[in-house]
């Protein structure tokens, strides 16, 4: 525990600063890390729905999905090997996230002024969705390449977003937090002043130094995060990414073309429908960007959760009415299938302004510096584990649970929405260094935090630091 740090009883104070072109550009470049993630998410489902790819690598699935619609449609694509093609990427991501703590959302939250943190952080999610849409469009284009080698182009083009983030990471500056942590105090002040567009950075700098001092007194962030006073952050680091994946979003993002083929669309229409869901997710993300720092995180979570719940119940019911338990359906009209797509779009839109961006934003803004890398590693690893899990089990689960799978996801959405209502306090506009006050005031989490655990600001030390500035 830090000694001699003054306890502030206030909270939610605003540090001076504005949106500068420099901070905007920096966050834009950092966000481009989302492109490669999104491209990978969007590309595999389209590729695995292409006949030329299936017949070459998964001949048994190819035969199975060519069977006519009087057979069980739910099991058309059920193949562990096929799902491994999609899910294996996330095992790799899981392992690397332990080393990299995944850097982008935390970088954005450290760079952004508190009152714009939501908007700038969601740049990452926006890039994920742009990557998904780009993949959907490319699949739509390459599927029609004569000779059946379009899937090679789809997979090969992943090199483009990889190149963008590689170049971006070479030009990105360090955050003030990281400069302070490594002892570059003058550079940290200069950077803070540059990104906030003001010389009046004393109070914020002071908070960052206090947070850094406290972090330095902690030698084992991994065991530290297990302390009782970090129980709220640890709980969120595990449950938020887990819940984000249990919404079932990646059933649509990974397997939209496969799902659309399952409900009777042809190859081209399936890929076109994936372009529609990809467009909806990009547009929905803008809603979040525009509202997250005004309406707050909770309002978006609660509205989005309710809309996702309703949409999933309707999609499950529409599929049940047509395909029943047997999974055989010979008369799915275009209109009927389009209504299913419409409700899938309602679901995707709601995710796009709630659990999608907030699933990254909230964990990135709640960890104090001393547990930030451990907390963020847990958050990303749990996310990747459940991404892997859903990717791996979806096609088999669809085969066994049939339309009931959509009700299972609806049940999870009900649970997570109730969880947010009771356990997630509003974090909008609160400086990260003062976030502890939010937990301290919460009806449930306050039990885990005593007044001694609240160290915010260190005015005495600040006087020394700024004497010569
Ligand atoms: C999630 C991904 C999802 C994407 C969809 C992200 O926030 O982590 O799993 O595919 O949103 O836009």
Q: What are its keywords?
A:
single chain, 469 residues, mainly alpha, 23 helices, symporter activity, MFS_trans_sf, transmembrane helix
Written overview of the protein:
This protein is 72% helix and 0% strand. The chain is an all-alpha fold. The protein starts with 20 loop residues before the first helix and ends with a helix. The longest helix is centred in the C-terminal third of the chain and has 33 residues, at 369-401. Bound molecules: beta-D-glucopyranose (BGC). The site of beta-D-glucopyranose has 15 residues, from α7, α15, α19 and α20. Residues 41, 125, 128-129, 132, 244, 249-250, 253, 281, 356, 359-360, 383, 387 line the site of beta-D-glucopyranose (BGC).
Following the backbone from N to C, one meets helices and strands in this order, namely HHHHHHHHHHHHHHHHHHHHHHH
Helix content: over 70%
Low-confidence stretches: 1-11, 458-469
Total count of helical runs of at least 4 residues: 23
Bound molecules: beta-D-glucopyranose
InterPro entries: MFS_dom, MFS_STP/MST-like_plant, MFS_sugar_transport-like, MFS_trans_sf, STP/PLT_plant, Sugar/inositol_transpt, Sugar_transporter_CS
GO cellular component, one term: membrane
Family: Belongs to the major facilitator superfamily. Sugar transporter (TC 2.A.1.1) family.
Membrane topology: Multi-pass membrane protein
């Amino acid at each position: 525990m830090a000694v001699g740090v003054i306890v502030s009883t206030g909270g939610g104070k605003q540090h001076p600063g504005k949106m500068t072109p420099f901070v905007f550009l920096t966050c834009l470049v950092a966000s481009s890390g989302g492109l490669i993630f999104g491209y990978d998410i969007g590309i595999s489902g389209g590729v695995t729905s292409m006949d030329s790819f299936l017949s070459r690598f998964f001949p048994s699935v190819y035969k199975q999905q060519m069977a006519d619609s009087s057979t069980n449609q739910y099991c058309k694509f059920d193949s562990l090997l096929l799902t491994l093609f999609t899910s294996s990427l996330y095992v790799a991501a899981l392992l690397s996230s332990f080393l990299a703590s995944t850097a982008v959302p935390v970088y954005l939250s450290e760079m952004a002024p508190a009152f714009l943190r939501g908007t700038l952080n969601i740049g990452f999610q926006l890039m994920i969705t742009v990557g998904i849409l780009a993949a959907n469009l490319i699949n739509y284009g390459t599927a029609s390449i004569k000779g059946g080698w379009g899937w090679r182009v789809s997979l090969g083009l992943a090199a483009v977003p990889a190149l963008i983030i590689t170049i971006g990471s070479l030009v990105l500056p360090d955050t003030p937090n990281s400069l302070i942590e490594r002892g570059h105090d003058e550079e940290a002040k200069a950077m803070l002043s540059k990104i906030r567009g003001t010389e009046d950075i004393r109070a914020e700098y002071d908070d960052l130094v206090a947070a850094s001092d406290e972090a330095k007194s902690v030698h084992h962030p991994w065991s530290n995060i297990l302390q009782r006073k970090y129980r709220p952050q640890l709980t969120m680091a595990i449950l938020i990414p887990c819940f984000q994946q249990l919404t079932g979003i990646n059933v649509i993002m990974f397997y939209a073309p496969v799902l659309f083929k399952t409900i009777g669309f042809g190859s081209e229409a399936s890929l076109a429908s994936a372009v529609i869901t990809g467009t909806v997710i990009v547009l929905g993300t803008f809603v979040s960007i525009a509202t997250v720092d005004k309406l707050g995180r909770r309002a978006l979570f609660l509205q989005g959760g309710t809309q996702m719940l309703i949409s999933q119940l309707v999609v499950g019911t529409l599929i049940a009415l047509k395909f029943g338990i047997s999974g055989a359906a010979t008369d799915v009209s275009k209109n009927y299938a389009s209504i299913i797509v419409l409700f899938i779009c309602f679901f995707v839109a709601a995710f796009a302004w709630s659990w999608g961006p907030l699933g990254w934003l909230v964990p990135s803004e709640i960890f104090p510096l001393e547990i930030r890398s451990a907390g963020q590693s847990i958050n990303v690893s749990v996310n990747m584990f459940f991404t892997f899990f859903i990717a791996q089990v979806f096609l088999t689960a669809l085969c066994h649970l049939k339309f009931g799978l959509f009700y299972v996801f609806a049940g999870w959405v009900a649970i997570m929405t109730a969880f947010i209502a009771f356990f997630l306090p509003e974090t909008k506009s609160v400086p990260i260094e003062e976030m502890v006050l939010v937990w301290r005031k919460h009806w449930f989490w306050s039990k885990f935090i005593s007044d001694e655990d609240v160290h915010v600001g260190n005015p005495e030390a600040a006087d020394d630091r700024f004497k010569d500035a």
